[in-house]
Amino acid sequence: MRQIINISLPEKLSKMVDDATKDGQYASKSEFFRCLLRDWSEEQLYKKLKQSQKEMKNGKKFLLKSFKYLKNM
Fold first, then answer.
1. How many domains does the chain have?
2. Of 7, 45, 59, 60, which one's alpha carbon is 20 to 30 angstroms from that of 28?
3. pTM for this structure?
């Protein structure tokens, strides 16, 4: 199920989104923001992995059952 979220952007950012969709980089404004959120989500996962590596080096270890488990930490 999808949910509609409305956001307010400054004119300069709004133009950037418009330009990206007009140039064909994204199929729609919604796709632009979905891509942005996917990238952000991957970055969050990467940060958690790096933190986990750091903790393991310091002797703090845990059993990683799945990536889903890591996302929910």
1. 1
2. 45
3. 0.70
